[in-house]
Design a protein that fits this description.
Elements (H helix, E strand, L loop, with lengths): L5 H24 L7 H23 L3 H30 L12 H7 L2 H10 L2 H4 L4 E2 L2 E2 H21 L3
Antiparallel strand pairs: 1-2
Helix pairs in contact: 1-2, 2-3, 2-7, 3-7
């Protein structure tokens, strides 16, 4: 299999997403860093992107299919980048201006309609603004934003390829 073939690259993108989720699970279960609502949305976007790439790699479509898969994956990457950007913005807001923490998801599922739950989760809370870990001076959402930018560039490259 050609390492630069679209199929190989889709599998490589899937492996990268699996690695990102593995790191997230390590940080949660070993390091004890619990994910906030925006972190969970970003994980869902990474999983969605990875699954689209896995299906594209298995399917090995022609040019039209590759573009379709890339557009679908790009939607996950853009939505993930948006939520990561929102979380980065929340981290720069003074603590006294942050929204309060949310009730448990179980309570919200019982008491609120789905649209309200989605609005509250995507809006972010004080716990989303907490910087509990950094690497090279960058927080987790900043690293995640870089990953989503790389995913977006990957999708654009897959769409514009001629082979």
């Amino acid at each position: 299999m050609n390492l630069a073939s679209p199929r190989s690259l889709f599998f490589l993108a899937f492996a990268g997403c699996a690695l990102l989720i593995g790191v997230a699970l390590y940080m949660e279960h070993v390091m004890g860093l619990l994910p906030c609502p925006l972190c969970i949305v970003q994980r869902i976007c990474i999983i969605g992107f990875g699954l689209v790439c896995l299906v594209a790699g298995i399917h090995s479509p022609g040019r039209g299919g590759r573009v379709a898969y890339s557009v679908l994956a790009l939607l996950f990457a853009i939505f993930g980048a948006t939520t990561a950007g929102r979380q980065i913005w929340l981290q720069s807001v003074p603590a006294d201006q942050l929204p309060s923490c949310l009730p448990s998801l179980e309570y919200m599922m019982d008491a609120l309609p789905f649209q309200e739950i989605a609005r509250l989760v995507l809006h972010g809370t004080a716990e989303c603004a907490e910087v509990s870990w950094t690497l090279l001076g960058m927080s987790i959402p900043e690293w995640t934003l870089l990953a989503f930018i790389a995913m977006s560039l990957f999708c654009l490259w897959q769409m514009l390829r001629r082979d």
